[in-house]
Sequence to fold (280 residues):
Amino acid sequence: MRRVTTSPQVPQQVPLGALTFDVTVSGPERGATVLLLHGFPQSGRCFDAVVPRLHEAGLRTVVPDQRGYSPGARPDDVAAYGVLELVADALGILDALGVGYAHVVGHDWGAAVAWQLAARHPHRVSSLVAASVGHPRAFSEALRTDPEQRARSGYMREFLDPGTEARLLADDAAALRELVLHGAVAPAALDPAGLTAALGWYRAMATTAADHQGTPDVEVPTTYLWSTGDAALGRTQAVATARCVRGEYRFVELAGVSHWIPDEAPAALATEVVLRSSPW
Fold:
């Protein structure tokens, strides 16, 4: 049996201009690269049960703590958390690591970034696996036309309230911890300044809605996982996502799983990533 050389899962710091990101690069040194993007209010650790499965399949993983979650990448201006800034971070991290193109995986807000990355920079993306959040244009349409999705997304309006931090962090962050259910809240989000930065992703949407609504179709091979127990994302946006993908597309419905797919269904997520990364 061929011996596979892997690197340890030790975070390294990747500077991008004035910002510095904590990034864990690990897995077989000659494996194809998989970039994994987390969402709110988690860190890259949400993929801890997914990453070893990818390594076993011969894949190398790059897992950043994104803007606002890495202590060295926490600008004060809300506009700095616009989705295109987040996409630029992902590209910058790949550039800094010498990675020309990657299989891209995203969950929650990380999925929103992953969709944008695949749609706007297809030459850098070998394949896309998005979990929970559908194509940004499909989600925006559902938010406008589907009363159920508007109700599900009511928390997003609440996150615009400047008192949100105090509410979420009260009683040892009980509300924030309850939100994540079976997963872990990022240490950064348990700090008032870190939580404000994390909420900046939502607050920046007020001025960057056009970037979401104008997201191009995706042409790279794409898999979208949606779970029937997701309290935040409904079926309308899930079904509509197919109309926004022009490349080879696979829709996977996970019955009985909540929004937190990487934590609750890591094997299913890893399987879809491996399928997308296989050359046959």
